[in-house]
Amino acid sequence: MVIDLCLDDEIEKEIEIKEDFKIILEEGQIKLNDYKMLNSYEFINDILIEFYLNDWYTKKLNKEDRERTYVFNTYFYTALAKSFNASDYPARYTASQIRHKQVKRWTKDVDIFQKDFVFIPVNESNHWFLAVICFPYLSGKVNMIDGTPVNEPDDDAGGYPWPRITYSAVRDRSEADPNDEDLRLFDMASRGNLSKQQGLDYETDAEVTKIFRRIQVKRPCILVLDSYSGGVNRARITATLRGWLEQEYFVKHPRQKKDFSPEAIKGAALRVPQQPNNKDCGLFMIHFVEMFFKRPIVDYTFPIRHLENWFSVDEVVLNCRKRKELQCVILNKMEEKRSTMPEEIELPILDLDYML
């Protein structure tokens, strides 16, 4: 009798693949394969990101902050920037109008102009980073404390001109021209410039900012928080989101006027802690969202300088801390919902032992 070991291996592999797609937690539709992505050598996926952010939003964020915050799911920006054939639309449609039309239904039940913060996860070439639209209802700078209009200038000391850039479109995407942005505010967060570390820690840097700024302000703006900074390449994101924001306003507030120029609603990439490896981008992104409330921006005068030492990278990566936190949320939810594993399926022991 001859045993075909190759055939047995194929059958075993097929069984394993089927098991991977079995749901272990109905809430969030988390499958066994998603759970395995918590291993230290894996990228976390969109399912885990959305599950964690939903749990954070509903359980950890207080009611006041929930009411002033909106979090888009992980597919929003991909849908917004999806490439299109202009000939499929009326000739009068601009690129921004077409992009808006592609995601119009996403906001049918919400007016984002009633929110302070709109969080938008972005995935580009398997890398996760975060865009945040801040105070979209404002028309200019106001005092952070009492909301009165102010005319505090941005800090242009040490400013430098930045030439127009030639950019290549990301595959399957149609995005706005980044050259309308103040590219200096993106170059300051480039990986080359981040090598010149500034400041001490968040508490000290925030206090220094308050002392240095005569008046702390808030303003309408679009920020990019990227743990593997793309510098000026991220200007495409803010330009695209500003175009969408303008079209969204016209739809929700048709009889009102508002300035959506790059000068009125500035875009910027911020200097934030950088990941020490190539796989923890998703973990850093969800940590950025949490820190936005735990250690808030104290002044929106550009350039915003006090988040470079926002937190220690150890809060995310040391001993897989953030992965273990995400694992605990899943396990606690399974216990809370009294989830039962599919027959003959056991949760694997995860590799969560690496130091960085």
From TrEMBL:
<keyword id="KW-0597">Phosphoprotein</keyword>
<dbReference type="Pfam" id="PF02902">
    <property type="entry name" value="Peptidase_C48"/>
</dbReference>
<keyword id="KW-0645">Protease</keyword>
<protein>
    <recommendedName>
        <fullName>Ubiquitin-like protease family profile domain-containing protein</fullName>
    </recommendedName>
</protein>
<keyword id="KW-0378">Hydrolase</keyword>
<dbReference type="InterPro" id="IPR003653">
    <property type="entry name" value="Peptidase_C48_C"/>
</dbReference>
<feature type="domain" description="Ubiquitin-like protease family profile">
    <location>
        <begin position="28"/>
        <end position="292"/>
    </location>
</feature>
<keyword id="KW-0833">Ubl conjugation pathway</keyword>
<dbReference type="GO" id="GO:0005737">
    <property type="term" value="C:cytoplasm"/>
</dbReference>
<dbReference type="GO" id="GO:0070139">
    <property type="term" value="F:SUMO-specific endopeptidase activity"/>
</dbReference>
<dbReference type="InterPro" id="IPR038765">
    <property type="entry name" value="Papain-like_cys_pep_sf"/>
</dbReference>
<dbReference type="GO" id="GO:0006508">
    <property type="term" value="P:proteolysis"/>
</dbReference>
<dbReference type="InterPro" id="IPR051947">
    <property type="entry name" value="Sentrin-specific_protease"/>
</dbReference>
<dbReference type="GO" id="GO:0016926">
    <property type="term" value="P:protein desumoylation"/>
</dbReference>
<comment type="similarity">
    <text>Belongs to the peptidase C48 family.</text>
</comment>
<dbReference type="GO" id="GO:0005634">
    <property type="term" value="C:nucleus"/>
</dbReference>
